[in-house]
Amino acid sequence: MLSLEKLLVRACAATLQEMYAQHKATFLELFLRRRPVSDLAFGSCNLQPLIRAKIIELSGKKIRPILRVFPVQGRFIVSDYFTPRHPDNVLPVALDESIYMENSLDVHKGDVTLDVFTGSGIYPIFAAAKARHAVGVDINPKAINYSKFNAILNGVEDKTEFLLGDMFEPVNGRKFDLITANPPYVLIPPHKTRTDALHAESTGDGLDIPKLFIAGVDTHLTSGGRVQMITGSVGNETIPEISFITERYRGKHKKVIIDFLHQRKISLGTFLRRKFATDTKFYHAPISKSFLQKWELNLRQKGYTNYYFYLITIQPARRFEIVSKQHKFQIRKDYYLTTDMSDFSLSYITRLMRAYERYFKWWESHRGEKRWHTKPTPRSPKVKLEEKLRACRLELQKKRPIK
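The line above is the sequence of Methyltransferase domain-containing protein; the predicted structure tokens follow.
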């Protein structure tokens, strides 16, 4: 567990800021690419706070990283690396979807916010810039420890609160203006369990935990409260599987926005083969081709043909509406969830970070303007029929009964 001694953590913050400002390339090489560097690489920077906090270690004349430190928009987020043999690992920040979510947080000044499945605590830490109070919940004790450490590291410990427990259990009876979530959605085969990885989803379609989240979220919202969930799931050729959301809110004063993080369709078969035939980060050994074929066939029989990454926003509206957004900028880079930053070259990481920085600077300067292509979400024949029947019933109710 990380030390939560404030003086030590604040000394770590000062050291990290100096290292990143004066030796950015070496910083990225050490913490993101997970490569040892010379003990003289950071010049006069005082590395002792990081050594005492067990973020780095000295091995001979080399500095080696123990934990991952991710620099994002003037903040530093400490997490574990993508190590497969530790199911309680606190997942590292994803460069694409996490940064996008942080910039998309629908936080209003003075809000009280809740982040479920908080992990490293990155969303409450960003929400604290505007929110009056930001709460994070996680079932993993290690995640709560890392979240508290990161809150102190970024100077928001007085505005944040991190609670240990399962989903909404620790905040029973409390209401929030904004509830966010990045639930466990990484598909794992049905014969595996979540003990293999707490960030994974073991129902075979990746929908079990998002369904539980949506089922319980309304009781913790204030009037006018909003919900944001960034996730990935199976779907048909046009939209992801969100019927559990649309069925819950249809007929209510809600607007459901599907914000796609990728521009081209991801075939379900290609996704399963690319991810599970070669990926040993979660499973320690590749999954057989015959099992993948059976798994894909089972999903296709349910009507699933594609895989999607997206941000769902549910907000108050005058009437029920579903809208999808297609960005002009490619948000999700790793379609198959098979790589982390240590697999990339330093030049690629640098170019990628610059691209996101430019994009979000442009976004901030054009806030309120159209940043995406918006279109109504296609409706299935079943939904169209239900709407026609509903309209007929309303028409009959308007007619006066014959005396």
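Note on the example: The first strand starts at residue 37 and ends at 38. The chain is about 35% helix and 25% strand.
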